Amino acid sequence: MSKPVGMLTLPDQQLEIHLADQEDTDLICQMLIEAAEWMISQGIYQWNPEQFTREEILSYFEYREIYIIYAQTEPAAMFTLQQSDPDYWGMRNSRGYNYLHRLTVRRNFSSAGLGSYIVDWAAERTRLSGRKGLRLDCLAQNLKLNSFYQRLGFRYKGTALKNGREYNLYEQWEAPDSFREDDLVDFVYFNEKDFHLLQSWSASEAFQLQWAGGRWSYPLTEEDMRAYIQDANLPWKSDTLIFKVIHRLSKEIIGHISLSQIDRKNRSARISRVILGDPIYRGRGIGKAMIVEMLRIGFQSLNLHRITLGVFDFNRPAIQLYLSTGFKKEGLMREKTLYRNEYWSMIEMSMLRSEWEELYSEET
Question: Which parts of the sequence belong to the N-acetyltransferase domain (predicted)?
Answer without folding.
Answer: 15-176, 185-354
